[in-house]
Write a structure and sequence with these properties.
This protein is of the alpha/beta class and about 160 residues long. The chain has helices at about 15-25, 45-55, 90-95, 100-105, 145-150, 155-159; strands at about 5-10, 30-35, 70-75, 80-85, 105-110, 125-135, 135-145. It has a domain at about 30-130: P-loop containing nucleotide triphosphate hydrolases (Rossmann fold). The protein contains 6 helices and 7 strands; from the N terminus they run βαβαββααβββαα. The structure holds adenosine-5'-diphosphate (ADP) and magnesium ion. Magnesium ion binds near residues 43, 64 and 111.
């Protein structure tokens, strides 16, 4: 599969949220967003935008599912938001029913995806967040070229 890498810098939490929102508006069942980056780098902020773009109502707060492991939201598509930080074996992933989520309908956003590289499907879009300073983050998107272009078309038009 032809893959492409897009790098950008976000200058605020709002900008990272808006990136998620633009992508969420175009996301479809089967899209998997593998989010990586240290604590506080913006993974949940991005997922909040993604959820709103998918049509998840404002009355649902998007928070890190660190303890629940997976949160489920309904919008135009279902959104499964998981955080694999606390998982330490593939057995844990099985307990979570990870494969069933992946093979089912819905969009997935996986925080700390760098911990489970072997469990990610080939169509996953990897999005990494790097802390630059209080308000700035480097964001790097890597995935199948065609899907990346489709999902990012609103953003790419601006640059
Ligand atoms: N450019 C930016 N992008 C994303 N978050 C930012 C940015 N600048 C500041 N922040 C702040 O950084 C924090 C990111 O937290 P969060 O999204 O929960 O990170 P993570 O899920 O990666 O641990 C939030 O408090 C957010 O307001
Ligand atoms: Mg988080």
């Amino acid at each position: 599969m032809n893959s492409v890498v897009i790098e950008m810098e976000s200058e605020s939490a709002v900008q990272t949220f808006d990136l998620g929102f633009s992508i969420g508006k175009r996301a479809e069942d089967g899209d998997v967003f593998a989010l990586s980056g240290e604590l506080g780098s913006g993974k949940t902020c991005f997922t909040g935008g993604l959820a709103r773009g998918l049509g998840v109502g404002e009355d649902y707060a998007i928070t890190s599912p660190t303890f629940t492991l997976i949160n489920e939201y309904s919008g135009r598509c279902r959104l499964y938001h998981c955080d694999v930080y606390r998982l330490n074996s593939s057995g844990d992933l099985e307990d979570l029913g990870f494969d069933e989520y992946l093979s089912g309908k819905g969009v997935m956003a996986i925080e700390w995806a760098e911990k489970i590289p072997d469990a990610l499907p080939p169509q996953a879009l990897s999005i990494s967040f790097v802390y630059v300073d209080e308000n700035r983050r480097k964001i790097r998107i890597n995935g199948p070229a065609e899907r990346v272009r489709d999902l990012l078309q609103d953003i790419l038009r601006e640059v």
